[in-house]
């Protein structure tokens, strides 16, 4: 009775400590208890993956999603969270008696492990004094072994004894003590047991999942696992060099030997290892090109490596992981199968090594950084790709040449082929320029010898009139950027454009009277909201004389239509008010709505007219700062005739300040 009392106190104390310092596993179990609370105080909810034997403690995400590994979860299964004998008494709390590790094997229904404990004479240890953690294979785990291995266990001297000792540690370790990337010394020759404790509550030992944990015993604790684990002796490096199916991979690693050496050192890695057959599927020319460039080989190999251990049993849904190459892959599952980037390609999973895990795959994963730029072009840019080849521009894109493709999306290239060739030459840059290397005001030299301007905005990067869309890629010999439209290189200044257009004669006349014409001609980058002649309908000679009689007033009005910097529609943040400070000093309120622009709530009927020194947006009304008053009644009357979208304030005696002409180049 005294022993039972002490054991019960020990269990309560350990349970309390477990709650104080709970692990991801313990939190999942607690959630599963909540799901099954109507079934009793010690019942947990499990969800079974349809078509498999996999059962998982219910998580909040999986509960509401109703699927694990892409498969529907079966009906909820309720089990005891801890296999204890509970005596219910209305007057007294339930008592939870515990026993030795050996006798706990009965409670967890590990009949085969108990049988093998008898045969191997381990019973004397686990039924006696001491403190043990035993990772107990379930009966299903033993039954998964082939007959040859079972025969070996039963007939070879001490083999079963060694195997069971490898599943044991000489201390009590609850799940809260099993930390991620921990290595435990087993009783068998102190060989390592490799622990991973994942954020989704999965705990693995040599990639075997703990399916029932923390079964307390008087001399330790029992954790039930879903497979029999074997002693680990090799590093990833050693396995690559010695595995008969990885000869081609070994040859690739020998090109980049420093990476192979790293995989022989302590660490925590996952390697998706393409087999010899996987390499045979890749075009021989491609393999030779890759193996001929040390940097490309390194990129290729690192794309198959993760700096963490990802056992298959821990994958419950598709998750994105960063590879050692720097880009990402998605590891998921489909029933019992492991998937990479959504494809079933894993031939053999969970080959455990001393510094990680290997999954054999039947495809070579090719990162963008190991591809040539022409191999990066996708279906949405196929028209551009076809035209480049048809027009004879592909000669400039040799494998040894560094370049950048600016590829418009399909459906934007219908025009005369002679003109198209000239335009497409301006979509190939002479150097490799990645997205991170672009900056505002940068000039990019094209294959055609022209220079393209780069405009960087809060939420967009644009090259001339064309803005980039998501999907820029970096290849081994260059970069690819996707554009919304063809780039149209401007050939005229703002002044030349407005003059040739013919709709802006009054605006140009006023700019000349104000001495501001050079602003339209000089080098730089301006955004101009240019009012058409329609904006000045009804303006008489008398009105014109009045408007030009006060030079400060005229310059104030005109310079309110100019902003420093080139702001095109694609660069404006959609759905919000963009404040553009004008040369005059007040702000313009600009919005991009449904591929069109509004300025100060006025519709802009024509936008993104690109010039060599800026961009023009067309307006049909004169613009005026809403918070700037007018001090003369005659001028107020005139402005009211021209400006209808706001109510202009009148402040008697107000005068316009002189605006310094520091924006002219000669200043």
TrEMBL record:
Keyword Glycoprotein among record annotations: no
GO cellular component: extracellular matrix; extracellular space
GO biological process terms held by the UniProt record: cell adhesion; extracellular matrix organization
GO molecular function: cell adhesion molecule binding
Any coiled-coil regions, as ranges: none
Residues of the signal peptide: 1-22
InterPro entries associated with the record: Adhesion/Biosynth-related (IPR050904), FAS1_dom_sf (IPR036378), FAS1_domain (IPR000782)
Keywords from the named record: Signal
Residue ranges constituting the FAS1 domain according to the UniProt record: 88-229, 233-365, 368-487, 491-623
UniProt xrefs under PANTHER family: PERIOSTIN, PERIOSTIN-RELATED
Annotated protein name in UniProt: FAS1 domain-containing protein
Source organism (scientific name): Pygocentrus nattereri (Red-bellied piranha)
Lineage: Eukaryota, Metazoa, Chordata, Craniata, Vertebrata
């Amino acid at each position: 009775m005294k022993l039972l009392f002490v054991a019960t106190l020990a269990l309560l104390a350990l349970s309390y400590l477990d709650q104080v310092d709970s692990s991801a596993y313990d939190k999942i179990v607690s959630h599963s208890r909540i799901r099954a609370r109507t079934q009793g105080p010690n019942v947990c909810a499990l969800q079974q993956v349809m078509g498999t034997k996999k059962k998982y403690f219910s998580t909040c995400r999986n509960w509401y999603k109703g699927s694990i590994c892409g498969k529907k979860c079966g009906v909820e299964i309720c089990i005891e969270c801890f296999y204890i004998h509970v005596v219910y008494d209305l007057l007294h709390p339930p008592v939870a008696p515990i026993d030795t590790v050996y006798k706990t094997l009965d409670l967890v229904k590990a009949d085969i492990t108990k049988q093998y404990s008898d045969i191997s004479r381990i019973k004397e240890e686990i039924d006696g004094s001491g403190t043990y953690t035993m990772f107990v294979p379930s009966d299903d785990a033993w039954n998964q072994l082939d007959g040859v291995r079972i025969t070996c266990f039963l007939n070879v001297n001490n083999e079963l004894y060694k195997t069971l000792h490898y599943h044991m540690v000489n201390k009590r370790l609850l799940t809260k003590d099993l930390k991620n990337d921990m290595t435990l010394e087993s009783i068998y020759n102190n060989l390592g047991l490799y622990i991973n404790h994942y954020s989704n509550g999965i705990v693995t030992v040599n990639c075997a999942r703990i399916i029932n944990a923390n079964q307390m015993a008087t001399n330790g604790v029992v954790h039930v696992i879903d497979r029999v684990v074997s002693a680990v002796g090799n590093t990833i490096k050693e396995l690559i060099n010695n595995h008969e199916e990885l000869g081609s991979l070994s040859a690739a690693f020998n090109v980049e030997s420093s990476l192979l050496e790293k995989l022989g050192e302590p660490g925590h890695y996952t390697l998706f290892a393409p087999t010899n057959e996987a390499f045979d599927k890749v075009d021989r020319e491609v393999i030779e090109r890759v193996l001929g460039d040390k940097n490309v080989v390194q990129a290729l190999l690192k794309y198959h490596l993760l700096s963490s251990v990802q056992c298959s049993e821990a994958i419950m849904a598709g998750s994105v992981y960063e590879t050692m190459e720097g880009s990402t892959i998605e590891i998921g599952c489909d029933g019992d199968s492991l998937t990479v980037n959504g494809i079933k390609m894993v031939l053999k999973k969970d080959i455990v090594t001393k510094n990680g895990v290997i999954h054999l795959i039947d495809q070579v994963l090719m990162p963008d950084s190991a591809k040539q730029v022409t191999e990066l072009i996708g279906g949405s840019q196929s028209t551009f790709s076809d035209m480049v080849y048809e027009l004879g521009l592909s000669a400039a894109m040799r494998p040894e040449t560094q370049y950048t493709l600016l590829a418009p999306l399909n459906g934007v290239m219908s025009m005369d082929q002679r003109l198209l060739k000239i335009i497409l030459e301006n979509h190939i840059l002479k150097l490799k320029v990645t997205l991170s290397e672009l900056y505002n005001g940068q000039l990019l030299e094209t294959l055609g010898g022209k220079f393209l301007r780069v405009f960087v905005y809060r939420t967009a990067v644009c090259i001339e009139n064309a803005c980039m869309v998501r999907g820029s890629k970096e290849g081994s010999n260059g970069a690819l950027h996707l554009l919304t439209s063809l780039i149209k290189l401007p050939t005229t200044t703002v002044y030349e454009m407005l003059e040739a257009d013919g709709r802006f004669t009054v605006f140009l006349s006023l700019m000349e009277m104000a001495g501001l014409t050079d602003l339209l001609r000089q080098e730089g980058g301006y955004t101009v909201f240019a009012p058409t002649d329609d904006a000045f309908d009804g303006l008489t000679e008398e009105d014109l004389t009045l408007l030009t009689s006060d030079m400060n007033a005229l310059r104030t009005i005109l310079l309110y239509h100019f902003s420093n910097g080139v702001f095109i529609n694609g660069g404006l943040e959609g759905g919000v008010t963009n404040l553009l400070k004008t040369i005059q000093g007040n702000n313009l309120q600009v919005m991009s709505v449904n591929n069109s622009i509004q300025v100060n709530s006025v519709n802009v009927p024509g936008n993104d007219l690109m010039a060599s020194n800026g961009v023009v947006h067309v307006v049909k009304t004169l613009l005026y700062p809403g918070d700037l008053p007018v001090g003369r009644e005659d001028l107020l009357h005139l402005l009211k005739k021209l400006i209808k979208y706001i109510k202009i304030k009148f402040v008697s005696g107000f005068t316009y300040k002189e605006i310094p002409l520091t924006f002219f180049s000669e200043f």
